[in-house]
Specification:
The protein has 14 helices and five strands. By secondary structure, it is mainly alpha-helical. It has three domains: 82 residues; 78 residues, no CATH class; 77 residues. The strands form two sheets. The chain has a three-stranded antiparallel β-sheet with strand order 3-5-4. It has a two-stranded antiparallel sheet with strand order 1-2. Strand 4 and strand 5 form a beta hairpin. Helix 3 crosses helix 4 and helix 5 packs antiparallel against helix 6. It is globular and about 55 Å long. The N terminus is likely disordered.
Length: 257
């Protein structure tokens, strides 16, 4: 268990994270792709209720609300995931950005990923007792349904895979392009200088599945070499990057590592 986990739990004792809802992962992927066919958010919302595969209207309404809350929270179609799919048409990249957005909304899962999961090496068999212990620390009581939901979400988001009926920590591709896109999105929608400290203090790169700060640094160095950012600078006890493009320009040229 990381010190970061202890700090977050200590500062959230009065209001523990809400219990995560169904992942609706495949439905969310389809919804994001299909949203490109609409010029009206209201028409898109109505479409979701018609196209979701669940038989019950109430279930479709509930699933639609999860999708909209996680991936269309601004109430329009100009969302980052939509723009990424429109520009790149790369499903692996799309799902990397989706993981970040999902984990910022489903904070219990995000907390587990950044404080527990990234410290397990790929190939590690995740024990159910480790999930149970985590959930019990957060809520100060046993919650079997939450443990089951947490486990299913980690599988849906491909953080773990089943091998011989055992949950194994997956080895995800290094999300270099997603790291650059989210850096622009979060810190530099317009070209500017950002310190590495600001970036590393944020959880987004852990949500992408990156385990080491060195991977973040290596990615920015590579981006500098290829001209995707203006500068990666280290010196005088200062480490920073200067971006070259606006977020929209970065997406439109399909910049990729």
């Amino acid at each position: 268990m990381s010190k970061n986990f202890i700090f977050k739990i200590a500062t959230n004792k009065e209001k523990p994270p809400h219990i995560p809802s169904e992942p609706c992962w495949q439905e969310s992927i389809k919804a994001i792709k299909d949203s490109l066919e609409f010029d009206s958010f209201l028409k898109f919302k109505r479409y979701l209720l018609d196209v979701l595969p669940q038989n019950s209207l109430e279930t479709r309404k509930r699933y639609a609300s999860y999708i909209l809350k996680r991936f269309f929270h601004s109430g329009n179609l100009n969302e980052l995931t939509v723009k990424v799919w429109k520009c790149y048409r790369d499903e692996e990249l799309l799902q990397q950005i989706m993981r970040y957005q999902f984990l910022t909304v489903e904070s219990l899962v995000g907390l587990f990923v950044e404080s527990e999961l990234i410290y397990f090496p790929p190939g590690y068999i995740l024990k159910n007792t480790e999930l149970e212990t985590f959930v019990e620390r957060v809520y100060n009581t046993k919650k079997r349904k939450v443990v089951s939901r947490l486990s299913s979400i980690l599988r849906e988001l491909n953080f773990i895979k089943m091998v011989n009926k055992k949950p194994m920590i997956a080895l995800l591709p290094t999300p270099k392009t997603a790291l650059l896109i989210l850096t622009h999105h979060l810190f530099s929608p317009q070209p500017q200088t950002v310190t590495l400290k600001e970036i590393l203090n944020h959880s987004f790169w852990k949500y992408l599945g990156i385990r080491e700060e060195s991977v973040v640094r290596k990615t920015f160095k590579e981006a500098d070499t290829l001209g995707l950012i203006s500068k990666y600078y280290v010196g005088d006890q200062l480490e920073q990057i200067t971006t070259k493009y606006t977020l929209d320009e970065f997406l439109e040229i399909r910049a990729k590592l």
